[in-house]
Every structure is written in C-alpha cells, then in structure tokens.
Model the fold of this input.
Amino acid sequence: MAYSAFRIALEAIRGHAGWSPVWRDATPRAEYDVIVIGGGGHGLATAYYLAKAFGVARVAVLEKGWLGGGNVGRNTTIIRSNYLLDANEPFYEFSLKLWEGLSRELNYNAMVSQRGVLNLYHSDAQRDAFVRRGNAMLLHGADAELLDTEGVRELAPFLNFENARFPVKGGLLQRRGGTARHDAVAWGYARGASRLGIDIVQNCEVTGFRLKEGRCVGVETTRGPIAARTVGCAVAGSSSRLMGLAGLRLPLESHVLQAFVTEGLKPCVPGVITFGAGHFYVSQSDKGGLVFGGDIDGYNSYAQRGNLPVVEDVCEGGMALMPMIGRAKVLRMWGGNVDMSMDGSPIIDRTPVDGLFLNGGWCYGGFKATPASGWCFAHLLATGEPHPLAARYRLGRFLTGDLIDEKGMGAQPNLH
Ligand SMILES: Cc1cc2nc3c(=O)[nH]c(=O)nc-3n(C[C@H](O)[C@H](O)[C@H](O)COP(=O)(O)OP(=O)(O)OC[C@H]3O[C@@H](n4cnc5c(N)ncnc54)[C@H](O)[C@@H]3O)c2cc1C
Done:
C-alpha cells in the first residue's frame, strides 16, 4: 500500500479500516541467500538496499526482540556530515545525501529535519581546529560555516555567552545537518524491505553459527537453524558477544550511553547545539521536548540502562551551556548499548570466517550513518568487495595501524 495524501483522505472517510500492516511479520524459511542479523537501522537498511540496489531479495533480517528496540529507537536522532578525515567525510556526506531523499525513497515520513548542527568553540585553539574541519568538509562538497560570537548569538541568544570559564567564542555550523525521527527510520526501512520481498523476523535470536570447513553456512536461532550462503552481522552493542559465537574477538568495547528528554516546551532551541567545552548536546523534538545527552557511562557493559554519576555530569554540562534548561523537568531518560571501537570509527568488512561479514563499531554516532552503512554493507554482501566509500573501514586496520582516529584520542574507546 502506497502512502499519499489521497490515501489518508480515503481512509478518513472509511473509518481507517483499510490500512495494512507496515511490514509483513515473516516466519523464517529453511534457507536464504543472505541473512542479516540485527533488525536495527543498519540491518534493515542493508536488507533494503540489497534488494533495491543489488537485486538480492532472498534475504532475511533476524531480530532477537522487536524492531526499534535497540539503539535505532534510543538515540538522540542527530544527523550530520561534519567530519575531518578523508576516510570519514565522503562516507558521511553520502549518508546525508541519502537522508535528504529518504522519505521520498521509502514513501514513509522519516521526519528528516535539516535544522542545522552547531558545534560551539570556546578557545582560539578550538576555533583553529574547527576551521580545519570546516575546510575539509567544504573540500568534500559538504556545507560548513564558521560563526563568531555574534553569529551564534543570533541563532541561540539563550546560551551562556559570558560564562567566565567557558565563554562562547563562536561555532562551526552545518546547516544541512539536523535530526530525523529515529523509529520511523527503522519502520520505513522495514516497510521498504518487506515490500521488496524480504523476510523480517522478530523474536528470533541468533544463538550460534553453523560452520563447515571454516565457512559460515547458516545460523542457529531460537526459532531453529537457518541456512544461508552469506551472513552479515549488524547488531551494534552486541557485536562482540555475537562474533564470540563464531570464535572471533573484536577490537570493540560495549558501553552504555544515556539520553534524556524533558517535558514539551514551546519552540526555543533552533537546531542541534553541541557544547565544545564539555560533552553535552541538545536539540528540540517536534513534540517540544528538549532531547539531550553527553558522555558514555565509561565502563564496559551490555546493559541498556545507565547510572547516576553521568546523569549529574550531563546536567552540569547543560547548566553551564544554557542555564535556562534548569527550569525544565526531565520526563524520561534511558540507555543504549554502543559498540565503541578503538579508533572511534566503524568496521564494514569481511571477517576471518568465510561467508561471515561484520558491520559494527559505530560508537555513539551510527544513527546518521544508517543509510550509507546499509548501502555499503549491502554492496559488500552482494559483491564480496568493499564499497569505495567504506574502503578504509577494515577490520585489519587495528593490526596494521591504519587507524581512522577522527579525534586523535588514541586507543581509548571511552574518549572517542
Ligand atoms: C542514547 C544514544 C544516543 C545516540 N545518539 C546518536 C545521535 O544523535 N546520532 C547518531 O548518529 N548516533 C547516535 N547514537 C548511536 C546510534 O544509535 C547507533 O550507532 C546505531 O543506531 C547502531 O546501529 P543499529 O541502528 O543497527 O543498532 P540497533 O538498533 O541496536 O540494532 C541492533 C539490533 O541487533 C539485535 N540483536 C542483538 N543481538 C542479536 C542476536 N544475537 N540475534 C538477533 N538480533 C540481535 C538487537 O536486538 C538490536 O535490535 C546514539 C546511541 C545511543 C544509545
């Protein structure tokens, strides 16, 4: 069923009796060409592009819980392509271009809102680093603008500009950045994939891999064994646990990242704003809630909930940046389980086990990558070759030292 204004009017007249389920809840078959493990954004986007762009439709997405129950439904929805390094910027810019046409592509409103992403700077050295990053963005065809204090004041007069310790000196603005509705992204890709014949199987946990002469030939699941020529894993914070079932140890740590939303307020925050002197970022949802977050909890965990010291730290960051936030009541907070890589950049690659492929290491920034990650992983699964835009996201780089350390933090996952 295609969605349109005409369809809404028709259904309104018919008492909304004609809507069909958004996707087909499939029963797993005995065999597929490709199995994608993980029904998050990346897994669903991979399945969609496998069928749409590469003509591979005998595909199943296996999800242990429900679609949107992982990070894709827990993140703070920020999309942007404001990276410095050559290995990253073209990939994220490709992703942003896919976001720009996503609702039309999927015939599903992903609520992509290019309201701008503003990274604040508070010192001369930070400004110089942002100038460099902005130039790198421009060289790769992205948009970037450097604002001074007055430029920021025009956009966000409520910030604490005169904070003695962290005066706001300006910001790097990407106007094409913004937000998208996170669970609509999962539902939209699921619907698109399902319409192309892909089986989406919920409540189906992969509990093991079927290996034959060193090759992966299928998976064991809570709903029985399923054979496949190619198996791709896109399970975010569960990557190390899942790959452990195939005897692989990954250069990843799983950490908790928390997010917060306040009661609904009148429109006051124009776009996404990040605090350059601490780790705090905020935007306002279409319902009016201030959505914000900060650092990861900083200890290894597979939990989807966090602890109070980070809550305090995030609130301190918020108060330092925009004291008015102290008047807002927090409505909800939650945690997600993120797969932090050793250099802060992702992995889209084959593994040492033939037929088994990995998409992971997205840290706390993989939502914005969803379309490009799906596209590039589908390319890898369909052709066996890495997509040129993801050519540096290799698993072996941690052995060879060809790291993609966007922040220059070294091998300390909790700092990326
Ligand atoms: C609080 C928070 C805020 C964030 N904010 C942002 C942001 O603003 N911008 C941004 O770009 N990124 C952000 N991120 C990161 C982003 O959400 C993730 O990088 C991205 O969603 C991960 O990819 P995914 O959507 O495929 O993951 P998920 O949605 O987690 O999908 C993985 C799926 O695999 C399933 N799974 C696990 N094990 C198995 C198994 N054995 N068998 C079957 N299924 C299994 C899980 O149930 C899950 O549904 C944030 C993350 C969190 C937690």
